[in-house]
Design a protein that fits this description.
single chain, 381 residues, alpha+beta, 2 domains, four-stranded antiparallel β-sheet, 32% helix, binds iron/sulfur cluster
Length: 381
């Protein structure tokens, strides 16, 4: 493992830019930490953290100058790999008839090369889950695959998880296991502020070599490991995953769904902030004189009534049925489909639900009131 100091991080940004990458990293915008295009280390949220609770998010000052001492903001990297709105093709009415042409943003040559800086372990797992959906199945999404193939990932391990985080119980954090080019652990102690860096690919190795990074000392590595051990213990929430898919499938008529029917607004916030949700719809847009049109793919949500509309009726007509569909997909049928949970424990749906519905509490309530599988083991799937 190597050590990087703050000036090495600036050098890393320069190298990435020289190689043609657009750097996307955490920065403060409008009272939130978001993933945006940044140019320098100075734009990282130094000394800023966030306090998150169900239906509550606010920024706060830290007592150190940590660059990654915050948790996840409302946006995930999904926004760049699977944009909220994407043109699929365009059409124009000409004297010869209708001509169809590729989207304005569709050519591979037009696609940016992104360097994602500050990707958290649970986020990396979420990207892995979206890879299964968009890039590894029978049907491959060409836009997702093209952007995905061009990214470089600088992950940052979580040393200070928040109240709504539960990645440890979902086994997606707080330390990265794979899928990164470079993984950093920020270590701040009296008089020193550095990153213990580990490469996870040839690209990452080459980056460290170009930065002439020095090896980390045994003491620095130990400090990083201690921080990560403590992070698991500080996790605000947890989900008991013991036979969870079986539990939910066996409880489709559980009274907890009626209780949720009373509280859930069907607003879809949880699906919009979720880094793994992938539902979309298609919309055609024409100009006013009808000479040009475009077909667009837009994020959709299983919480809308229209989403389940099939020839004359909506399959999921009640809020209860929509919440049940969403949660059962995340924690049960996703496992049947993809062999993994569809939830990585990022906690965003808890923070950004306007009425503070908490997926961990709902899972707990169903388990507690269920005669089936009420005795948990040690969180096995
Ligand atoms: S379901 Fe909630 S906690 Fe799980 S990945 Fe989605 S937003 Fe994060
Ligand atoms: S669970 Fe919360 S965020 Fe999701 S649809 Fe219901 S009210 Fe909206």
């Amino acid at each position: 493992m190597e050590r990087l100091e703050i000036h090495d991080l600036s050098a890393l940004f320069s190298v990435l830019k020289q190689d043609g990458y657009q750097i996307i990293g955490p920065t403060v915008r409008e009272s939130a930490i978001v993933c945006e295009r940044i140019q320098s280390v100075d734009e990282l949220p130094a000394g800023v953290t966030d306090i998150q609770r169900p239906a509550s998010y606010r920024l706060a000052e830290r007592h150190d100058n940590a660059l990654f001492g915050h948790r996840l903001g409302p946006q995930s990297w999904k926004r760049y790999l699977y944009p909220p709105r994407l043109q699929l093709f365009q059409a124009a009415r000409t004297e010869k008839g209708i001509t169809i042409s590729p989207p304005t943003n569709g050519g591979a040559g037009d696609l940016p090369k992104y360097a994602f800086v500050g990707v958290r372990p649970c986020e990396l797992s979420a990207i892995g889950i979206q890879d299964m959906v968009f890039a590894r199945g029978t049907y491959v999404d060409p836009h997702y695959s093209a952007v995905r193939a061009r990214i470089i990932v600088i992950a940052v391990n979580c040393t200070d998880p928040g109240e709504t985080c539960f990645c440890a119980s979902m086994k997606t954090g707080p330390q990265t296991e794979s899928g990164y080019d470079l993984a950093l652990t920020e270590v701040i102690s009296a008089g020193s502020h550095l990153f213990v860096a580990q490469s996870g690919s040839d690209v990452g190795k080459e980056l460290l070599a170009r930065l002439k990074a020095a090896p980390a000392s045994a003491e620095e590595i130990q400090r990083a490991e201690d921080l990560l051990d403590r992070a698991s213990e500080k996790m605000g929430r947890s989900v008991d995953t013991y036979r969870l898919p079986e539990l939910l499938h066996a409880n489709i008529d559980h009274p907890q769904w009626d209780e949720l029917d009373e509280r859930c607004l069907s607003c879809g916030n949880c699906t919009q902030v979720c880094p793994t949700c992938f539902c979309s719809t298609v919309e055609d847009v024409t100009n006013l004189d009808g000479t040009e049109a475009g077909r667009w793919r837009k994020w959709d949500s299983c919480f809308t009534l229209e989403f389940s509309y099939i020839h004359g009726g909506c399959v999921r007509a009640t809020t209860k049925s929509r919440y049940r569909q969403w949660m059962t997909h995340k924690l049960a049928s996703w496992v049947d489909q993809f062999g993994t949970f569809g939830c990585v424990g990022c906690g965003r749906c808890i923070t950004w639900c306007p009425v503070g519905i908490d997926i961990t509490e709902e899972a707990r309530a169903i388990r507690a009131q269920s005669t089936l599988l009420s005795t948990s083991s040690k969180g096995e799937m």
